[in-house]
Amino acid sequence: IMPYTLPLHRARRMVSRKKALLLLLLALSSLSVLIHQSAHLSWSPKPSSLNCPPTSLPRPKHTSVAFLKTHKTAGTTVQNILFRFAERHNVTVALPHHACDHQFCYPRNFSARFVHPHTLPPRIIASHLRFQRHELGRLMPNDTLYVTILREPVAMFESLFTYYNQYCPTFRRVPNGSMDAFLANPLAFYRPQEKFSMYAHNILLYDLGGDNNHSPADPTYLPSFIRQMEEVFSLVMIAEHFDESLVLLRRLLSWELEDMLYVKLNMRGPRSKGNVSSEALAARIRTWNALDAQLYEHFNTTFWRKVAQVGRECVAEEVRALRRACDQLVHHCFGGLPQLRPATQIKNKELRPWQPSAKVDIVGYDLPLAVSSSGAPPDERCLKLAMPEVQYSRYMLRKQSLRSRRRVVPHRPLPPRAVARPARGLPLRHPTMPKVA
Ligand SMILES: *[C@@H]1O[C@H](CO)[C@@H](O)[C@H](O)[C@H]1NC(C)=O
Ligand SMILES: *[C@@H]1O[C@H](CO)[C@@H](O)[C@H](O)[C@H]1NC(C)=O
Ligand SMILES: *[C@@H]1O[C@H](CO)[C@@H](O)[C@H](O)[C@H]1NC(C)=O
Ligand SMILES: *[C@@H]1O[C@H](CO)[C@@H](O)[C@H](O)[C@H]1NC(C)=O
Ligand SMILES: *[C@@H]1O[C@H](CO)[C@@H](O)[C@H](O)[C@H]1NC(C)=O
Ligand SMILES: *[C@@H]1O[C@H](CO)[C@@H](O)[C@H](O)[C@H]1NC(C)=O
Q1: Compositional bias (Low complexity) spans (predicted)?
Q2: For residue 312, which of 18, 20, 330, 358 sits 20 to 30 Å off, Cα-Cα?
Q3: Strand 362-364 relative to strand 267-268: parallel, antiparallel, unpaired?
Q4: Which ligand is nearest to the CA of 241?
Q5: Strand order, beta sheet including 145-150
Q6: Which ligand 2 atom lies nearest to the CA of residue 209?
Q7: 95, 143, 92, 115: which is closest to 407 by C-alpha?
Q8: What residues does ligand 4 touch, defined as CB less than 6 Å away?
Q9: Max CA-CA distance within the chain?
Q10: 5 lines ligand 1 (CB under 6 A)
Q11: Do 356 and 163 meet the contact criterion of CB atoms below 8 Å apart?
Q12: Chain segment 237-276, per-residue pLDDT in tens
């Protein structure tokens, strides 16, 4: 500022008014060029970005993350981001033992025994599990950051009701698959002791390790549960604000914007999307899932407080940069907008998403044989971007098993009780247990 104010002040007397105006215009236009350039460089936003508060010195990327993947909350998309990061940075991902399928023996309480020995010691974990702080603490490095994601309970319940209509015994019992009929009298259908009953009642709380059948009338239970969560989780993302969530996650982990690129995975086709049309129905869903509703409300509030701490405008700017970068990648991979297709129309079987039942379509992507702009086949990065959970988990296990067999240096042993035992003793997977969610 100094070099400009001084000559300007003198200019009053020494230079004509016209010249001073010219000088000011010059200063303003070079400033605007600077602003413009910094917007273009925002692919990887710099701490100097105008709307963002200055950060301390750049930290190295944080590579130890425990993502608690909750059900029907866009968790598959976050998992895909973490898997791709792990591959690019040679970070080991904990994967379930064969006997646990693609989830860590969910709905059982998580145990370090469920982890495949070829994936020890891990720095990232991102598959479905029922949270147990202590067991994860024994498995993961002590600098691990814990994150999770929640979704608004009304939309979430509609999704669960459709997705698990054949798996959850509660939902199977409901005549005509009618959500109205269920909500008119949930207790007529719900049996808390049945396997997979948690899909029907406060599933967020269940996934987080809480008691999903606790009375919402108990004024002490939820506040103390929330306090524990806040001690453990550095970030609770909100599915309704997915891109803002990724911005906070990127900042927490000091990752690059490039590490956060995604396409949405594991979505239902339009035929399978229901509609909670009345406010009365929505209110019943919230009453039935009162614990989840309060949990969501609390963490939605803290989420926006975190956004405000970073600066709303700063977050909004980075969201725009993220969306631009995602568009660029999608264009590179699909040669245009990717078309969502039912699994039967996807030629590459590595890209066919798993279908929970004949009544529900889960749509996915096919990659073009050649990207029209370049004529080259889409690269590995594109394949992984669109790869559904089941195939990606299998692929990662194969890859890490090969590496673990080649490894000469023995890995850090777990405390004695955590050393993975053979699968014997674990019950076989329930024949109808859903593999993905
Ligand atoms: C990852 O590991 C592979 C094989 O061990 C090695 O070739 C590669 O350089 C490593 N990459 C990084 C980023 O460490
Ligand atoms: C699972 O964890 C919950 C919460 O920590 C606990 O109340 C319950 O007893 C555990 N269940 C089993 C079978 O260990
Ligand atoms: C974390 O673990 C390392 C070695 O594994 C140890 O040196 C360090 O003191 C531990 N830090 C904490 C906070 O426990
Ligand atoms: C189920 O659907 C049938 C035929 O559409 C109808 O007659 C019946 O009343 C329905 N039952 C309930 C409980 O809604
Ligand atoms: C959902 O219901 C609302 C209100 O009845 C209606 O306007 C909307 O078109 C419906 N959406 C779908 C996808 O059916
Ligand atoms: C989440 O919080 C924001 C900001 O307070 C609010 O605008 C929004 O309505 C909340 N979302 C829900 C679904 O409650």
Answers
A1: 417-429
A2: 330
A3: antiparallel
A4: 6
A5: 93-94, 124-125, 65-68, 145-150, 233-238
A6: 4
A7: 92
A8: 175-176, 178, 181
A9: 93
A10: no
A11: yes
A12: 999 999 999 999 999 999 999 999 998 876 766 666 766 7
